Amino acid sequence: MEFTVDTHQWQPGDPLPHLTEAHLLGETSLARSYAINDAYVAHELVLPADQYLGLGLLDHITEHGYTAPRLIEIVDNTLIMEHIHGPTLFQALVSGETSYADGAEIVDALHRALHDIPLPKNADQFVGKEHHHLLRGTDHERASNLAIIHLDLHPANIILAADGAYPINWECARIGPPDLDRASTALAIGVVASEVNELQQASREYLHQLHRLFGNGYLRYLDEANAHHKTHPDLTDEDRGHLDTAQLVVRDVASQQ
Asked: Which residues are within 8 A (CB) of 38 and not within 5 positions of it... i.e. 6 or more apart?
């Protein structure tokens, strides 16, 4: 398909252009991202936007100073977002520009900063049914058990911009237990560490560094993180098998600490 408008001059409010594969920035089972121009990205969701629980949290976290791309507008199932420039943390780790220890500290710091953001007043709207019981109790108890979580925070979803590290791909965001977020990160690394390729040993070392920072609390959420990732659209039986193997790898690395 060809562009129907000059995307260099495109601004929010203009008709969305028909974007080509040449402008594809990346894709997951949940969305495809296209560069409209230097300022804006079109993040095309697989499902209708109203089926993504945590999109309403994006304004809240950026208003609290968290380094995430700003959500500009939603057009049907496409998010128009701020275009953040830079390599991913994954690319920096593979190239050796960032050490495994430093890369783990970046991810741990992003988790901590996100989980420290105060919950919005309408927090109950962003909590999955499986965690509604955690809403009971005092404000202090709720704050201890619940936080804003990304649920897909791994090196390929972190852009190293000039002014900091920016997590991207917020489709899974919601409010839930912080250690579930860490378990999801570990599981994503475990998938790479479970495959026989040139990154296998490096991924195990990275898992080791993450576990050193995360502690043991996330391990009890690995089953739940696994179940969550298995709900992603278009996941094959082979992909589900990789997640089960990844969980075993994460536990194995943790047991060697």
From this structure: 83, 85
The tens digit of pLDDT for each residue in 228-245 reads 988 876 677 787 888 999
Q: Take residue 122 and report the two structure tokens written for it.
A: 């309408």
Max alpha carbon distance in the chain (Å)? Answer: 56
Q: Which residues of the chain have pLDDT under 70?
A: 1-6, 137-144, 233-234
- For the chain, what are the domain ranges? 10-82, 89-255
* Residue 85 zone, left/alpha/beta (φ > 0; ψ -120 to 50; rest): beta
CA distance 160 to 105: 13
pLDDT in tens, 95-150: 999 999 999 999 999 999 999 999 999 999 999 888 888 877 666 656 668 999 99
CATH superfamily label, 89-255: Transferase(Phosphotransferase) domain 1 (1.10.510.10)
Report d(CA 175, CA 106) in Å as an integer: 21
Let me know: does 243 contact 191? Beta carbons within 8 Å.
Answer: yes
